[in-house]
Amino acid sequence: MDYLIPANTKKGQLILGIFRPMDLILFGTGVLITLILLLIVPLQSTLLAVLVLSPALITGFLVLPVPNYHNMLTIIVEAWNFLSNRQKYVWKGWCVKDVKDTEQK
Fold first, then answer.
1. I need a surface site. Which of 1, 61, 62, 82 has the fewest CB within 10 A?
2. How far apart are CA 89 and CA 32, in angstroms?
3. Spatial CA neighbour of 26 closest among 68, 57, 67, 69
4. With contact defined as beta carbons under 8 Å apart, do 44 and 55 qualify?
5. What pLDDT, on the 0 to 100 scale, is given for residue 97?
6. 60 with 88: CB under 8 angstroms?
7. How much is the mean pLDDT over the chain?
């Protein structure tokens, strides 16, 4: 009675097998802001061109697929959750009631 679950079962729920709807909304917003800035801002220097292109580049980096995670945004959120949450974990396993002299804090 062994069950084999394919590794890519969630891939069928994604758009093009890669993107969630939120990823496409995020990337589309970055591209839209970049297009508006390209129309408004006169590009007279390289620094200004990089600043105008930065919304599309940053959002493109955030939705970039990464192995073992969904994308870079997922890695950043997971790292932030790990660093900002409690780092001392209290044992509350199934055998905690079996131990008679546990510390109660």
1. 1
2. 44
3. 57
4. no
5. 58
6. no
7. 81
Q: Give the single-character DSSP code of 13.
A: G
Distance CA 33, CA 101 (A): 61
Residue 93 has what pLDDT?
65
More confident residue, 99 or 57: 57
Closest CA to 72 of 80, 61, 81: 61
Task: Give CA–CA dist 10/13, Å, rounded.
Answer: 6
pLDDT exceeding 70 applies to what percent of the chain? Answer: 74
Residue the block writes with tokens 């084999």: 4
Alpha-carbon gap, residue 37 to 60, rounded angstroms: 17
As a whole number of angstroms, the distance between CA 28 and CA 22 comes to 10
- Distance in angstroms (rounded) separating the CA atoms of residues 73 and 79: 10
